[in-house]
């Protein structure tokens, strides 16, 4: 789950000029919570469970790429959470107060802890495999944790008690609905699941017979975009359980999807893949608006060797028509959506794991395999600041609402809290 997906959208309409046609994306306001609750109440849920898929291995970077020997000496963090005994794979912040974090790791454990002092509130116990997904519901009332084997648990934060659990096939991704107590997840057998919490009423969305590698609920709360290992993308109607649009062949990707996201009003979807392409899609029509292709800075690998580059993370700027794409070769590309052109190229020495935009500015954050968090001014392409403290690669990170705190997780078994607020920003 990625933080920073605010509600509403910028005023006005964006116009995209393709070679042959003009695609106009007009903002549609999101429905009110009452409308959503009523709509979700009469959803027909499918009770059928699907058998789990085969075993799947989780690999971390064995060689700490780009991590210098003396890196532990510099620690810019304010708080370190060190109760995990193996790599920490995921982190999420509670959206209402931004005072709590949940982290999950290779030690089959997840913890809810306090950002101010790193004190553990409770352990989300009972997992039997690496916890790779964890997140708070929209109102911070519940926290969900999911492990690779497909065991998902939901906990009530104030009572610290488990209130629901369910087992699916090998878990690929998991995300809370942005306005309701509804949890979605994608599995290695190609299915996407939706549950009402805590009743557990269930609906499945059957994809192709290959892993549903990434997914995102769109801001209207009525649709979700899911990417698959075969390069296809589907936009699902959550109420009807049917796919509104299927992108495949030329419209899809030539390799497995790695990430999907949407802009603030949900009118545009962006998809990323191991094929090194990022595609902009009009979510209403399912049409590809444009394709961002990155020419690699490094030379092509010899014949027979695998391409080492891929799109690892994506994000839209909320205040300017900009999109950021992070690549495994360390390139952060800032694209201008209105001209469909590359605006800035910010080079990292090692691969980018994830990127996030500040909610209300043109500043983009990256975390990378060299263990550093960096802040970039997307307008100038210049690095604003860099924060270090981990002795291994950063595997996930989250930014709080007012962009004053960054929380990172790493292969060094730790999570860290960095204060990034600056008086001149």
TrEMBL record:
Q: Name one GO biological process term.
A: smooth muscle cell migration
Span list, region Disordered = 47-66
CDD domains assigned to the protein according to its UniProt record, in alphabetical order: WD40 (cd00200)
Is Cytoplasm a UniProt keyword of this protein? yes
Cellular localisation: Cytoplasm
Read off the Pfam families from this record. Answer: ANAPC4_WD40, WD40
Its cellular-component GO annotations read: cell surface; cytosol; intercellular bridge; microtubule cytoskeleton; plasma membrane
WD repeats: from-to residues: 81-123, 124-165, 219-246, 345-386, 387-425
Q: Where is the Anaphase-promoting complex subunit 4-like WD40 domain?
A: 316-394
Keywords tagged on the record: Cytoplasm, Repeat, WD repeat
* Gene Ontology molecular function terms on file: heparin binding
The protein's matches in PROSITE patterns, at most eight in alphabetical order, are given as:
WD_REPEATS_1 (PS00678), WD_REPEATS_2 (PS50082), WD_REPEATS_REGION (PS50294)
Q: Where this protein primarily resides, as one coarse class?
A: cytoplasm
According to its UniProt entry, the function of this protein is described as: Plays a role in angiogenesis and cell migration. In smooth muscle cell migration, may act through the RhoA pathway.
Q: What is this protein called?
A: Angio-associated migratory cell protein
Q: What organism does the UniProt record list as the source?
A: Terrapene triunguis
């Amino acid at each position: 789950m990625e933080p920073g997906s605010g509600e509403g959208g910028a005023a006005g309409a964006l116009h995209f000029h393709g070679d042959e046609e003009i695609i106009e994306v007009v903002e549609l306001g999101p429905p009110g919570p009452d409308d959503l609750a009523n709509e979700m109440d009469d959803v027909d849920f499918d009770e059928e469970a699907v058998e789990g898929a085969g075993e799947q291995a989780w690999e971390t970077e064995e060689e700490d790429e780009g991590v210098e020997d003396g890196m532990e000496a510099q620690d810019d963090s304010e708080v370190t959470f060190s109760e995990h005994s193996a790599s920490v794979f995921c982190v999420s912040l509670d959206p209402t107060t931004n005072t709590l974090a949940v982290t999950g790791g290779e030690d089959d454990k997840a913890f809810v802890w306090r950002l101010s002092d790193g004190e553990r509130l409770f352990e989300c116990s009972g997992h039997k495999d690496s916890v790779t997904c964890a997140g708070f519901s929209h109102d911070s009332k519940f926290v969900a944790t999911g492990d690779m084997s497909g065991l998902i648990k939901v906990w009530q934060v104030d009572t610290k008690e488990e209130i629901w659990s369910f087992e699916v096939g090998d878990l690929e991704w998991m995300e809370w609905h942005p306005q309701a107590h509804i949890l979605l997840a994608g599995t290695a057998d190609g299915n996407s699941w939706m549950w009402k919490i805590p009743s557990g009423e269930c609906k499945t969305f059957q994809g192709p017979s290959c892993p549903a590698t990434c997914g995102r609920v769109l801001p209207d709360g009525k649709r979700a975009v899911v990417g698959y290992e075969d390069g296809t993308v589907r936009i699902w109607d959550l109420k009807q359980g049917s796919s509104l649009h299927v992108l495949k062949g030329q419209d899809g990707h030539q390799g497995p999807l790695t990430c999907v996201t949407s802009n603030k009003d949900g009118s545009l979807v962006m998809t990323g893949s191991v094929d090194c392409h990022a595609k902009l899609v009009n979510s209403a029509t399912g049409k590809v608006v444009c394709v961002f292709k990155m020419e690699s800075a490094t030379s092509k690998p010899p014949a027979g060797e695998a391409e080492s580059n891929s799109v690892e993370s994506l994000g839209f700027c909320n205040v300017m028509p900009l999109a950021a794409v992070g690549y495994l070769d360390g390139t952060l590309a800032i694209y201008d959506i209105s001209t469909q052109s590359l605006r800035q190229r910010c080079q990292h020495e090692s691969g980018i794991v994830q990127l996030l935009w500040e909610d209300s500015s043109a500043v983009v954050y990256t975390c990378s395999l060299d263990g550093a968090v960096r802040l970039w001014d997307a307008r100038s392409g210049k690095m604003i600041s860099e924060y270090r403290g981990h002795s291994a690669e950063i595997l996930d990170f989250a930014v709080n609402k007012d962009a004053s705190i960054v929380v990172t997780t790493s292969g060094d078994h730790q999570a860290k809290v960095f204060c990034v607020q600056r008086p001149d920003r």
